[in-house]
Design a protein that fits this description.
Strand order of the largest sheet: 1-5-4-7-3-8
Number of helices: 5
Order of helices and strands: HEEEHEEEHEHEH
Distance between the termini: 39 Å
Strand content: 5-15%
Radius of gyration: 15 Å
Structural class: alpha/beta
Helix content: 10-25%
Largest sheet: 6 strands, mixed
Length: 202
Protein backbone atom coordinates (compact mmCIF):
# COMPACT_ATOMS: atom_id res chain seq x y z
CA UNK A 1 0.00 0.00 0.00
CA UNK A 2 1.25 3.46 -0.89
CA UNK A 3 1.04 5.28 2.45
CA UNK A 4 2.49 8.47 1.02
CA UNK A 5 -0.80 9.16 -0.72
CA UNK A 6 -3.12 11.58 1.14
CA UNK A 7 -6.28 10.61 2.97
CA UNK A 8 -9.64 11.99 1.78
CA UNK A 9 -10.24 15.53 2.97
CA UNK A 10 -11.33 15.92 6.56
CA UNK A 11 -13.92 18.56 5.69
CA UNK A 12 -15.99 16.11 3.64
CA UNK A 13 -15.80 13.52 6.38
CA UNK A 14 -16.72 15.88 9.19
CA UNK A 15 -19.71 17.09 7.20
CA UNK A 16 -20.88 13.48 6.97
CA UNK A 17 -20.33 13.04 3.26
CA UNK A 18 -21.15 9.60 1.89
CA UNK A 19 -18.08 7.40 1.74
CA UNK A 20 -19.24 4.88 -0.79
CA UNK A 21 -17.16 6.55 -3.48
CA UNK A 22 -13.97 6.77 -1.38
CA UNK A 23 -11.35 4.36 -2.76
CA UNK A 24 -10.17 2.44 0.30
CA UNK A 25 -6.87 1.75 -1.42
CA UNK A 26 -6.00 5.37 -0.64
CA UNK A 27 -6.38 4.83 3.11
CA UNK A 28 -3.73 3.36 5.40
CA UNK A 29 -4.58 -0.11 6.62
CA UNK A 30 -6.17 -0.41 10.02
CA UNK A 31 -4.33 -3.10 11.89
CA UNK A 32 -4.75 -4.57 15.33
CA UNK A 33 -2.80 -3.19 18.24
CA UNK A 34 -3.72 0.48 18.56
CA UNK A 35 -3.05 1.55 22.14
CA UNK A 36 -6.05 2.59 24.19
CA UNK A 37 -7.22 3.53 27.63
CA UNK A 38 -4.48 5.44 29.42
CA UNK A 39 -4.22 9.10 28.49
CA UNK A 40 -0.92 10.74 27.55
CA UNK A 41 -2.03 14.12 28.90
CA UNK A 42 -3.14 13.80 32.54
CA UNK A 43 -5.90 16.43 32.28
CA UNK A 44 -7.58 14.61 29.38
CA UNK A 45 -10.53 12.23 29.42
CA UNK A 46 -10.17 9.11 27.28
CA UNK A 47 -12.76 9.04 24.45
CA UNK A 48 -11.42 6.49 21.98
CA UNK A 49 -11.74 6.97 18.25
CA UNK A 50 -12.64 3.84 16.32
CA UNK A 51 -9.67 1.60 15.61
CA UNK A 52 -10.72 1.86 11.95
CA UNK A 53 -9.97 5.59 12.06
CA UNK A 54 -6.30 5.50 13.13
CA UNK A 55 -3.08 3.64 12.45
CA UNK A 56 -1.19 1.85 15.23
CA UNK A 57 2.44 2.90 15.49
CA UNK A 58 5.29 3.19 17.94
CA UNK A 59 5.94 6.90 17.82
CA UNK A 60 8.34 8.58 18.35
CA UNK A 61 10.55 5.54 17.67
CA UNK A 62 8.85 4.62 14.41
CA UNK A 63 8.10 8.20 13.33
CA UNK A 64 9.50 11.35 14.92
CA UNK A 65 6.90 13.76 16.32
CA UNK A 66 7.96 17.28 15.37
CA UNK A 67 4.84 19.42 15.18
CA UNK A 68 1.35 20.15 16.48
CA UNK A 69 -1.50 20.84 14.05
CA UNK A 70 -4.38 23.06 15.17
CA UNK A 71 -7.86 22.32 13.78
CA UNK A 72 -11.39 23.63 14.17
CA UNK A 73 -14.10 20.99 13.94
CA UNK A 74 -16.91 22.70 12.01
CA UNK A 75 -19.03 20.55 14.31
CA UNK A 76 -20.10 20.34 17.94
CA UNK A 77 -17.98 18.60 20.58
CA UNK A 78 -20.41 15.68 20.88
CA UNK A 79 -20.84 15.48 17.12
CA UNK A 80 -17.08 15.33 16.60
CA UNK A 81 -16.67 12.51 19.13
CA UNK A 82 -19.45 10.63 17.36
CA UNK A 83 -17.68 11.05 14.02
CA UNK A 84 -14.36 9.85 15.42
CA UNK A 85 -16.09 6.81 16.93
CA UNK A 86 -17.84 5.88 13.67
CA UNK A 87 -15.67 3.33 11.81
CA UNK A 88 -17.08 4.45 8.46
CA UNK A 89 -15.83 8.04 8.79
CA UNK A 90 -12.08 7.33 8.43
CA UNK A 91 -11.04 10.43 10.39
CA UNK A 92 -9.71 11.20 13.87
CA UNK A 93 -7.47 13.50 15.89
CA UNK A 94 -5.40 12.90 18.98
CA UNK A 95 -7.29 15.47 21.05
CA UNK A 96 -10.52 17.45 21.06
CA UNK A 97 -10.98 20.63 23.14
CA UNK A 98 -14.49 21.72 24.17
CA UNK A 99 -15.43 25.37 23.68
CA UNK A 100 -17.43 26.09 26.84
CA UNK A 101 -14.90 25.00 29.45
CA UNK A 102 -11.73 23.85 27.65
CA UNK A 103 -12.33 20.21 28.60
CA UNK A 104 -9.89 17.95 26.74
CA UNK A 105 -10.75 14.53 25.32
CA UNK A 106 -8.00 12.25 24.06
CA UNK A 107 -9.21 10.12 21.16
CA UNK A 108 -5.97 8.55 19.84
CA UNK A 109 -2.79 7.73 21.73
CA UNK A 110 0.11 10.00 20.80
CA UNK A 111 2.15 6.93 19.88
CA UNK A 112 -0.43 6.09 17.20
CA UNK A 113 -1.18 7.99 14.00
CA UNK A 114 -4.43 9.95 13.87
CA UNK A 115 -5.98 10.74 10.49
CA UNK A 116 -6.41 14.50 10.70
CA UNK A 117 -4.07 16.36 8.35
CA UNK A 118 -5.12 15.00 4.96
CA UNK A 119 -1.39 14.45 4.30
CA UNK A 120 0.13 11.12 5.30
CA UNK A 121 3.60 12.54 6.01
CA UNK A 122 2.17 15.21 8.30
CA UNK A 123 -0.08 12.65 9.99
CA UNK A 124 2.93 10.49 10.87
CA UNK A 125 4.90 13.36 12.40
CA UNK A 126 2.27 15.44 14.21
CA UNK A 127 -0.15 15.55 17.09
CA UNK A 128 -3.55 16.79 15.91
CA UNK A 129 -5.69 18.95 18.20
CA UNK A 130 -9.29 19.67 17.23
CA UNK A 131 -11.21 22.58 18.74
CA UNK A 132 -14.97 22.66 18.97
CA UNK A 133 -16.36 25.44 16.82
CA UNK A 134 -16.70 26.97 13.40
CA UNK A 135 -14.13 29.12 11.61
CA UNK A 136 -16.68 31.91 11.04
CA UNK A 137 -17.97 31.94 14.65
CA UNK A 138 -15.27 33.47 16.86
CA UNK A 139 -17.48 33.20 19.93
CA UNK A 140 -16.50 29.53 20.10
CA UNK A 141 -12.86 30.51 20.74
CA UNK A 142 -13.36 31.12 24.45
CA UNK A 143 -10.79 32.01 27.08
CA UNK A 144 -11.09 28.50 28.48
CA UNK A 145 -10.55 26.90 25.08
CA UNK A 146 -7.42 28.97 24.39
CA UNK A 147 -5.97 28.41 27.85
CA UNK A 148 -6.54 24.66 28.06
CA UNK A 149 -5.48 24.07 24.47
CA UNK A 150 -2.29 26.07 25.03
CA UNK A 151 -1.49 23.97 28.12
CA UNK A 152 -2.02 20.81 26.08
CA UNK A 153 0.15 22.05 23.20
CA UNK A 154 2.90 23.13 25.60
CA UNK A 155 2.82 19.69 27.20
CA UNK A 156 3.16 17.96 23.83
CA UNK A 157 6.01 20.26 22.84
CA UNK A 158 7.83 19.75 26.15
CA UNK A 159 7.53 15.98 26.00
CA UNK A 160 8.83 15.65 22.43
CA UNK A 161 11.29 18.56 22.35
CA UNK A 162 9.21 20.49 19.80
CA UNK A 163 10.06 24.20 19.57
CA UNK A 164 7.16 26.40 20.66
CA UNK A 165 7.06 28.48 17.51
CA UNK A 166 4.89 28.92 14.43
CA UNK A 167 7.13 26.71 12.34
CA UNK A 168 6.21 23.76 14.56
CA UNK A 169 2.73 24.72 15.81
CA UNK A 170 0.70 25.18 12.66
CA UNK A 171 -2.86 25.43 11.45
CA UNK A 172 -4.48 22.83 9.23
CA UNK A 173 -4.51 25.48 6.51
CA UNK A 174 -0.69 25.32 6.51
CA UNK A 175 -0.46 21.60 5.75
CA UNK A 176 0.84 21.09 2.19
CA UNK A 177 -1.90 20.12 -0.24
CA UNK A 178 -4.79 20.95 2.08
CA UNK A 179 -8.04 22.54 0.94
CA UNK A 180 -8.87 23.57 4.52
CA UNK A 181 -8.95 27.06 6.01
CA UNK A 182 -9.03 26.15 9.70
CA UNK A 183 -8.41 27.40 12.26
CA UNK A 184 -9.39 30.47 10.23
CA UNK A 185 -8.96 34.22 10.41
CA UNK A 186 -10.61 34.54 13.84
CA UNK A 187 -8.08 32.25 15.55
CA UNK A 188 -5.79 34.55 17.58
CA UNK A 189 -2.34 33.12 16.89
CA UNK A 190 -0.52 35.88 18.80
CA UNK A 191 -2.56 35.22 21.92
CA UNK A 192 -2.36 31.45 21.53
CA UNK A 193 1.41 31.34 21.06
CA UNK A 194 1.87 33.64 24.06
CA UNK A 195 -0.20 31.25 26.18
CA UNK A 196 1.77 28.26 24.89
CA UNK A 197 4.99 30.00 25.82
CA UNK A 198 3.74 30.72 29.33
CA UNK A 199 2.59 27.13 29.87
CA UNK A 200 4.63 24.17 30.98
CA UNK A 201 4.07 20.45 31.21
CA UNK A 202 1.98 19.11 34.06
Amino acid sequence: MDRARPLPTRRLLLKGAALAAVPYALLPESRAGAQTGVVDYPQAEWQAASTDNRTPAQRPDEYAIDRVIIHVTQQSYAGTLSIFQNPKKRVSAHYLVRSADGHVAQCVRESDIAWHAGNWDYNTRSVGIEHEGWVDKPEYFTDALYQESARLTASVCDRYGIPKDRDHIIGHVEVPGTDHTDPGKHWDWVRYMSLVGLSSSK
